[in-house]
């Protein structure tokens, strides 16, 4: 099975969005460079960010996100982001009415079930877990192998925390990677068993 990786862009004070669920400048680094990150031509990053992010993105088979993120993004209009094959949505509610069964989205109850379904779908590819409440729950359950952060030079002061409302200490190894891009610092840690 592939690794389970918790990932997001994050402010230097540990937030993935402000109190109104707005990312503010957290994704500016994804559009401020001169190297196309994907075929859309919208995402353009520095060469250092491309060299680090593109190989990682190419390994992702499934993303796990919470229902809140699914609703905020309007389910990415039925197409998983960044060329990912499947999205597993953690929710206590049913699939939205009118949501096409052909879309590669899977709605499950609970983080353990979400990780199991994602690993089944991903095979030996990476299972990416969106940071925030669901990511924190997956970390607390002992199911995260790696933590990746794109640290952006902004201080929010309050908002949605990278690790959600986690209430216990978790030790990380490393960092294994520290890559400086343009207006972003890419950091990767292994989770200590």
Automatic annotation (TrEMBL):
Query: Where would I find the Bacterial bifunctional deaminase-reductase C-terminal domain in this sequence?
Result: 111-169
Instruction: List each coiled-coil range.
Output: none
Name of this protein: Dihydrofolate reductase family protein
Look up and give the organism this protein is from.
Herbiconiux aconitum
């Amino acid at each position: 099975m592939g690794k389970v990786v918790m990932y997001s862009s994050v402010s230097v004070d540990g937030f993935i969005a402000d109190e109104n669920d707005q990312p503010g400048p957290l994704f500016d680094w994804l559009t401020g460079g001169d190297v196309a990150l994907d075929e859309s031509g919208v995402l353009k990053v520095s060469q250092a960010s491309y060299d680090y992010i593109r190989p990682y993105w190419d390994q992702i088979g499934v993303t796990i996100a919470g229902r809140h993120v699914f609703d905020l993004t309007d389910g990415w209009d039925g197409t998983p982001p960044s060329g990912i094959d499947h999205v597993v949505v953690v929710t206590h509610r049913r699939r939205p009415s009118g949501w096409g069964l052909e879309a590669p989205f899977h709605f499950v109850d609970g983080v353990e079930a979400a990780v199991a379904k994602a690993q089944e779908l991903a095979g030996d590819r990476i299972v990416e877990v969106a940071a925030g409440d669901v990511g924190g729950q997956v970390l607390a359950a002992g199911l995260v192998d790696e933590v990746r952060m794109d640290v952006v030079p902004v201080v929010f002061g309050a908002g949605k925390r990278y690790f959600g409302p986690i209430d216990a200490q978790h030790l990380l190894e490393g960092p294994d990677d520290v890559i400086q891009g343009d207006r972003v610092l890419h950091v990767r840690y292994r989770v200590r068993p």
